[in-house]
Amino acid sequence: MSNAANRVSKLLGWIVTSIIVGFLPAYIIANSDVGFPSPWLLWIILSIIVSIPIRRLIYGKDISMGRGKWDAPEKIRSQVVNTPQFVGRFDREKGLLDSTARMVEPVMPDTQIAWMGQQKNINITRFRGEILDQNGSPLEYISVELKGEQKKWVGSLVDGDRVRVEGKVEDDGILHAKNAFNYSTNSWVGETK
Question: Which residue has the higher pLDDT, 103 or 53?
Fold first, then answer.
């Protein structure tokens, strides 16, 4: 069964289930002596109940539209590492980047004033993510900044490491994230969770 057909069958299942679970008790209450003062209230409840599976179909498992996901980095690590010419990929809207790290700046400690005037020691690492075309020529460079608490910081990056970054592209055009997965060393770099 194709992915689209599978999603449609799941949608129909969710709609039928939501009607049975939500609409039938509401219908019984509406037609009883205790009933709703207006049949319009019944239709409002039905529309809310049916909208849940439709939103689930549109936005996937996560109701919020915010983040999409690629395969977990641990699952595709061998494929990435064993590819002689890793071209990389970048999704600006979702803030996802698979690329080769270039021009890696070493970890720079810094101090940030946190809430109530408390100082927070942070580490910052900057690099460029390199996206190549099929011939191996640079197609695009994405500026990346990893920033996290110093006491939670792990790992390091060197020029040429293949990395996965999940963050957010800010107005400055830089992909900001707390950590990245280093395919080359099979470890996380940045602030641990």
Answer: 103
Query: Would you give the DSSP letter of residue 151?
Result: G
Contact, 69 vs 133, CB < 8 A? no
Whole-model pTM: value is: 0.58
**How many Å apart are CA 153 and CA 147, to the nearest integer?**
9
Residue 12's pLDDT band, with cuts at 50, 70 and 90, is confident
SS3 state at 126 = strand
Closest CA relative to residue 53, chosen from 20, 3, 18: 18
CATH number, domain 73-191, options 2.60.120, 2.30.30, 2.40.50, 3.40.228: 2.40.50
Give start-end residues of each CATH 2.40.50 domain in the chain: 73-191
What is the DSSP pairing of strand 89-91 with strand 187-191?
unpaired
Query: Six-digit token pair at 163?
Result: 């990395």
